[in-house]
Structure formats: C-alpha cells, structure tokens
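Sample 1 of the test manifest.
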Amino acid sequence: MTQPAAPHFIKPLLETPFHGRARALSQVDSYVAWAGYTTVDVFTTMEQEYFAIRNATTLYDLTPMVKYRVTGPDALPYLNRLVTRDIAKLKPDRVAYCVWCNDAGHLIDDGTIFRLGESDYRICTGERQIDWLLDSSIGFDVEIVEVTERIAALAVQGPTSCAVLKTLGLAAIDRLKPFEIGYFTLGAHALTISRTGFTGDLGYELWMNPESAEAVWDALMAAGRSRGIRAIGSQALNVARIEAGFLLPNVDFVSAEHTLRTGRDRSPLELGLGWLVDFNKGHFTGRRALKAEQIRGPRRLLVGLDVAGNKPAHNALLYADDGGKREIGAVTSAIWSPTCKRNIALAMVDAPHFQIGSTVWAEIYLNRELVWERRMSRAQIVERPFFAPERRRATPPAEF
Amino acid sequence: MTAAQNEQLSDCIVIGGGHNGLVCAATLARGGRKVLVLEAAKQLGGAALTREFAPGFRVSAGAHLLHLMPADLLRELDLGAHGLEWAATDMASTALVEGGSPLVLGAHGAGQGLSAADAQAYAAYSARMRRFAAAVAPIFSRPAPRLGTDDWADRLALLRMGWQIRRLGRRDMRELLRIGGMNVYDLLEENFESAALKGALGFDAVLGANFGPRSPGTVLTLLYRLAAESAAGARAMSQPKGGMGALCDALGKAAVAAGASIRTGAPVAGVWVEGDRAAGVVLESGETLRAHAVISSADPKTTFLKLLGARHLDTGFVRRVNHIRCRGLAAKLHLALNRAPSFSGVSDSSLRGRLLIAPSLNHIEHAYNHAKYGEYSSAPIMEITIPTLNDPALAPSGRHVLSAVVQYAPYALKEGWAAGRQGFMEAALDSLERLAPGLRGCVVAAELLTPADIEQQFRISGGHWHHGDLAFDQFLMVRPVPGAAQYRTPVDGLYLCGAGCHPGGGVMGVAGRNAAREVLKSDMTSP
C-alpha cells in the first residue's frame, strides 16, 4: 500500500494505489475525501463521464471500500446472525448484496458479501464498523480482519466493458454470470473479478494486489482506447446509481450507529429492501423488531418518483396536496436522468401515500441567477429501478 | 430433537436450585404450575449451602448470615413448617479494634465506648437511614419499571417510586436526594468522630462490592442493603440452624410440598430453542426436557452466553450482557479450630454475633486500592462468624468453625490465584492472629474460596456473589441489562430469576419471587 508521504496529521488523507494514474488524468482538480482516501470527484466533466458509463467503458477506483475478511468454523452462522439475508444460500464464488441492522431492526449499513472459499468470506462496505462486527462475533468462532489496504479495487463498468476485458486476454470473462466471482491472470498479475457494480449496467469489479494496480490500469486503458474507455469520478457514478435505484449511505439513509435524533433510523422494510430480509432462516440481529414491524406495516417507504418538468427535485419536501399543507415526506436523491429522459428522484414517503401510482407534490426551489423561485411539481410514485438494461444480466454479454 | 425423545412436558423448568431458583419454583408451584427444578450439584443450595470442608467440620460455604430475606416471604412459604429453625437471631455486630476495646453495634443501638457526640449522632443517623430504607424497600417487591414506554403500569410504578420518596417529607426527601449519589466516606465523615464506628458502618456499604468507601455510589449500596434488611423485618441478622443449606433444604421442601419436582446432579448444557422460543433444556447428559417456560437462576452471562447462546440474541443485547460488571472481590475463608477462639476484649455474647475487621475508612480504602490494580489486600477487611457457638452440631464436640468473608480478593488476580492463594491466606490469618492471639495454633484445617473458586464451584461468572455489581448503572431497570430487567428476556419463554435481576443479590429470594409472579401472568396453554 502507498505510504503517506507526510505524517498523518499533516496529510490526513491516504492515496490509493491508482492515485498517480488518476491525478495524471484529472483536468479540473476535483477531489473528495472518501473513507480516509483522496478520490476523484470529476476528471473532466460529469456529463462526459456519465455518458461513458452508459455508452462505453469506465474505470472507477473503489479501493476505499472497506473490506473485512471473515474466516473460521463459525463464519457462516456468524454472517447469518449479522445480516438479514440467508447466507447459507450463498455458494462459493458468489456475491450477495446484504444489509445489517441493530437490535431495533434499523439499518447499520449495506454492502456485499463475497464467498471466497468454504469458510472464507469478505464483507465489502462503505464505512468502517469493526466494533459492530467484533461485538457480533461474541460467542462465535470466527476471525475478522480488515483488509482494505491489502486489496486495490477497480470498477470496470459500461456496455463495452466485457469486450475490453476480452481484448486484455481474459477470454473466459464472458461466461461470468451476475454476482459470480472468477479468477484470472493478466501477465504476472492475479485478478479476482466479480460481476458486480454500482451502475446498474454491464460491468465488473477487479480486485488485486496494490502492487498490480498501476499495471492493470495501464493495460485496461490501452485495451479500451478503441472502445472509449474513460476514468470517472464519484459525481457521474452518482447519476448512474440513482437511475439504477441504488441507495447511498448518508444520502438515502443514515446508519443507525450514527443517528442522534430519535426516529431518523431506517429499517430495511422502510427502505424497500424487504426482499433482503429472510424471516425463515433462523435468528439474526433485529429479527424480532423487524417481525413486529412487518406485522404492524411500515410507517414510511423509500420510493421512486417521476417528477414533472426537468428541474431535479433536490431536497424537496413532499406534500399530499398542491397547496403544500400536508407534508408527507422528502426527496433523498434527485437527478435529471439523461438516459431515461425523465426527472427522477428517490424519496421517503409516509404511509399511506407510498403506493405505486400515487400522486404527490414536490416543493422545488430554483435559483435563477440569484433569484429564487418556488415550484410545486406533480410527482408520481413509480417502480424502481428507473433504468435496467438487459445487457446488465445477459451472459455472455453482446459485443458492443 | 425428535418427538420420541421427549420427556414429560413441564409448565416450567427452573435452572438452578439456589435460594432464588427454589423460591421461584415454590411460588410457581403454589400458583398451580407444574414445575421441575434442575440443579447441577449433588445438593440444593447453589451458593447458599452447608458443606463439609474438613472431616467433621461443616460450614455455610457461601453466604453465612441471613438478613435480607423478607419476613413475608418466609411466612408465605411457611419455611418453619418445612424444617427451618434458627440457631441465632438478632445478632449484634462487633467492630474489632487492634489494641483497643471492641465497639458493639447491636441491632438496637450502639454500645459503650462512643463519645457523647457520636452516640447522639448515631441515634439520629440510624433513625434517618431506617426511614430512608423503609421508603426505598417497596421498590424491591415489584418488577422495576421500564423507561420510555407508553405502558401505564410502568408509569404508575415510577410515580409510586417518586411518591414513596416524596412522602418522607421535605427535610428527609432533600436529605435523601442529597446523599443518594454521595460516597459513604463523605457521609460518615459528616456524621461521626470515631474511626472504628465509621469503619464498621462503611464496611456494610462495600461488602461484596467492587468499591471502596470513597467510590461514588456507595451510599446507594448502603441504602440498598438497609432497605432489604428493613423488609427482612425484626429478625434481622440471623443464622439458620444447620447453616445456610438448611434454608435451601426448607425451600426445597416447600417447593416439593407445593407440587414441584426437583432433580439434583442434573447440569443443564443449554436452553433449547424452537421457533424463536425457549421450549426446554438440554442436560449435559444429552437428555432433553421440554417446558412452556424456562426460568434461569444462573447469572445473566451464564444464562445468555453459555446456556442460550449469542446466536439467539441480537448483537446490541449481547454487547450489554458482555459488559455486565461481575468480577467478584470477596473471598471466603473457613477455619476448622480445635477450640473456641477468643478475640481480645470481645465478650462471649459478641463472639456469637458478627465480627468485623474494618478499623477505619482509610483502612478499607487502602485494602481496596490493591484490588484496583489486580492485587489482593495485604491487610484485608473481614466479616467473621463462629457459627459453631450458636450451632455446635456443625463441628465435632468441643471443636469450632470460623467462617469469614475476606476482602479484597480480585477475581483477575495479576499473579493468578494458583500463585496468590497462599499469600492471601497468610494475610488473612495474620490479620486474625493480631486480634485473636493464638488463633493460628488452633487451626486444624483451612479452606479459602477465591472468586475463581466460587466461579468454578458454584457456576457463577466472575465468582460475584451478587451476579453483578450493585451499582447505579446496574440497578433497577438496568439490572441486569435493559431488555431483560423485568425477568422476561428477548427470547419468548425464557425468564431470569437470579440475583443478577432486580432487586439483586444476597440471600434475599425476592428476585425469585418477582420472576415467578411474572411467569404466572403468562399463558401456558401454547408451547
């Protein structure tokens, strides 16, 4: 791993193994701090990078994703008690999207669990939470080690991503099914590749030794030149993930470990993640609370919104009436979707207004050259995801 | 488990045949439930038992005085009819003073040797503390209210607690609220001159606790003890004939007479969970016993982490259980003596009572300082009884037993108890020898039970007599932890009834009775 050049208190953000390559491509010097690392927010323009996700191939450095290795004889019962999904159904070399909750059934975080061996798993998540993972291990024979710095990670996403990887010589990549893990070599470099991603498009995530990072980046850039490969920052990814209907921690929900005010925690049922909760697999943390909530019915639900007009409903309050008298929720994420050509949003809406097809009103504020305008826009509650192309699932993917 | 293996179905299985388990079983059986008590040891009693520690010498191996069990509980279970007799009641306490005359603190006032000011202050202090204790005592006999619920019963219970304190009157209420969070050192310094008196009174605030007299919250622990004693009534400090084991034998007989079954030598390996409810227990022998409700008198850590298992519980709850402070600091010393000991200046009648070695508050604090850093006290404090003076049958004719609670003996001794045991024993014997010259020469046999021994022999996590420190943050609605403080646990059908619950430890039995009343409220028709 790259050692910080200066003492941590002088230069608190770490650099990922791809940082040198990324800095060379950055035209606008736009960086954001992410889990203790400097990462690129925008390389050139957000629009250019977004369209590369939907039309070509993109590289996104996701090394800061926090990774924990879980091993030991009780690894499976441990994970099954930790997360709401049934990990017993997760076969070796497969990945599962999961959430985990506190005792009250409120979300602590979401992430993916990789099954790398019989009793060898990796949790990949947005925030550090070793204390919760260790407390959850009381009474289980498991070993939990953070391996974030030992693994460099690069997302290769977009319709031509499979073709680019094949050009690199990874012939068998087109047989990799969604959520499957494959093992490849690129010259002297070992690559673990999962068909996963945060774009809702065809794409892969490459996991490697930090020492291999620059060589793999260079090889991908060379192989992808004819297919419009481009490095992207977090802003473009954010547009793609909203189109795909994916949640972002601290944007669409706040971890129950971080909320200070009562009532700000969210359960998976409220976030529309009920499909991740398996009440029949045995006990897991939060099960009793979630069971009670299921019987009672959720008080609110995270839904997709199709908003009239073309102005994104950033942070808009939602009302049951166009007069703005009865407040029933708020928008958590909003964009103009360039691919859907729709003004879309994710929003938390109170019962009973969250039914698909219901109409709500969004209070949108527009700043037009420092003059504020308020607009009540009609919005309809719609199915998520907003964009789900067939190519994200097709195996083998078509040549683009 | 298959249906073919099923034993007969009980309404309730009580894990542990100590005093709380037996009180719970007797109360449940009297309430009409079919009850089975499972005790791991060969005899009933848990840590309240009488056993032979040297050929012909028997002693109460854990607690050696009964002063906390409410009078109405003894009456309710009619323990007299089930064989409970008293070797001594209303026993006085005598503070031993090296090179001075001992100070006698009877149940009804302080003896000679006090200055006029101290005698007057003692009378006022005792009366005031008795009033406070009486105001606090009713809290013990009901489940602790939960905080932050919409339940009217919880609110009513909180109001009742407030009312009990309010009706003390303005002056007393102010004083109670003023001293409630203080340490006992400051309180006693405010009131008295005599070091011996302060030492003896301060001793009761730290006995069995992870505290020295200057530790915060020690007035609360003292009030707690006095409140329990006030519910115990006029009999006060007493010694059952045949030792503490006789109490549990009587409790066992009362339970059986009410219809309960008891099995000894039946250690439970685990609580058996079916469909997210406790449906019985599995014994270490592999046998499975089914029941509608399982009530554990084992300490909370043992119950939740060993018998039930973390995998049936939420992480946050397990974290709270894991953080229960339950490292014992009290050791038990048993001496077999070839003659009655004599302590300098102590009268025969005082010798039959309770003797304290706690010559000053600073002495206690110094003794505790060692424990804070994982060392045993080189000059320990002690509560001593010579049970054979009141009950000669406990030893061969003309011979005697000395039983002492010796503090401080930290559970996690830095050097380990295998290495430290002899040194601590010597320190205790030296302290005794200074006050009772010639005692060492009379010792025929000696037994020292460290907290590590207590943990291992009585199956109590940390070897803590109270199954968890009695402290502000482990009282009432947070004892043992939120989510299990009303005897119910997160797992339906599993209850707690031991000293780890409200109102706590000592040979009191109230936790057992309160738990039984909660279980009796539940419907037993569905498994």
